[in-house]
Amino acid sequence: MAEQNTHLSSLLQKNEQSLLTQWIEAQQRVIGTKISPQELKIQCMDFLRLMVEATHQDKSTSIDGPAWVTAKKMLAEVSKSRTNQGFSPSQTALFVFSLKRPLFDLLRKELVDRPNEFADAIWAITQILDQLGLYTAEMHQRSREEVINRQQADMLELSTPVVKLWDGILALPMIGTLDSNRTQIVMESLLQKIMETESEIAIIDITGVPTVDTLVAQHLIKTVTAARLMGTECIISGIRPQIAATIVHLGVELGNIATKSTLADAFKLALSRTGRSVSKTTTHSPATGMRK
Amino acid sequence: MERIPILKMGSFLLVTIQVDMHDQLAMNLQEDLTNRISATGARAVLIDISALDIVDSFIGRMLAGIAGMAKILDAKTVVVGMQPAVAITLVELGLSLDGIHTALNVDRGMALLRNSLELSDDEDLGAELANES
Questions:
Q1: Residue pLDDT, tens place only, A172-187
Q2: Residues A194, B102: C-beta atoms closer than 8 Å
Q3: Considering only CB atoms, which chain A residues are within 8 Å of B97?
Q4: Number of Cβ within a 10 Å radius of residue A57
Q5: Which residues contact A106 (CB under 8 A, 6 or more apart)?
Q6: A180 contacts chain B (CB < 8 A)
Q7: Is B39 part of any domain?
Q8: Are A229 and B82 inside 8 Å of each other by CB?
Q9: Domain of A109: which CATH number?
Q10: Of A111, A230, A240, B62, which sits most exposed with the smallest number of CB within 10 A?
Q11: Is A96:A68 a contact under the CB 8 Å cutoff?
């Protein structure tokens, strides 16, 4: 079987041009105009050249050897660029798999009178190309995962601001779905800020939280308890009717945590607990207020 | 034996934990504090743990225990200055210290105790002077 690869290397080199044309055609039939013809041609040419080199150096049917390193690197790049262009995994893997047909046609022409060698060669090429194809798909998935991880990290960073409403009153507007990871960060940043500002009251606003399940409720209670341990009282605001219903249906016990329906109500309560109040000034006239 | 000092100020007892709490130290503190409460008839205890970086379940339980015992002895306990990391640890351990009052710093803790004992700002010191004379 190893002997067949010597054959493959020279075969590839001899018929590079015709292979290339057929290969590119086969790809364009499926993926259409998603990628420019020039770019595709350059990628195909590079890969064929690398494959000739690799099959020349490495006579086995495995792609784990050092000879395949550059070819694999090139494949990883191709797969990454296709991921960014919005290709599906199968479309990306097609880059390699579509080489089969032209290669098999070529072999049939060359080895028409030697069926045994033909069968062996087909097997060897299938093995190599399948491995390369799977590698491409794997790379595609990996670059997708990288994108997802980066977005997750971005989301964590941008979504946990702790704002100061008044002397001694903090607000934490929560937005998006709460999971353990995010809640941990939210809890830490809130407690840190409480310590820095020595605030007596923290308002946790969950208007932007789409759903509350037992886990989210538990996280909320934990945050409130931790804040209480530090000597700060928490008010939860922005509970929508559906969420209130969910909390009751789930049987979650919010204990003696103060809850208000809007941030404004919570702020008012916070002010009154710190011995302050909001009142209208008598000189205020609505017209100037509007124009201001 | 290593002990944590307990200061008496009027009808208050003050405890500042400034070393790493280990189990024996915590047990000594519990014993000393209950003795002092009954000996002095203190009505309030303030425990400052702002220098405490690490707690385990034992120390957490000790704190809860001290507060519970003080309550039975008719003294109100307030824990002040808990670090965020300590608070998170206690919550994760399931120790929410329900019977204990907390405050952000010593000032607020004192104000809380005075309010709940309905003392004016100087009255606790006044009691002290009266005792001495």
A1: 998 887 777 778 888 8
A2: no
A3: 229
A4: 12
A5: A11, A15, A18, A19
A6: no
A7: yes
A8: yes
A9: 1.10.490
A10: A240
A11: no
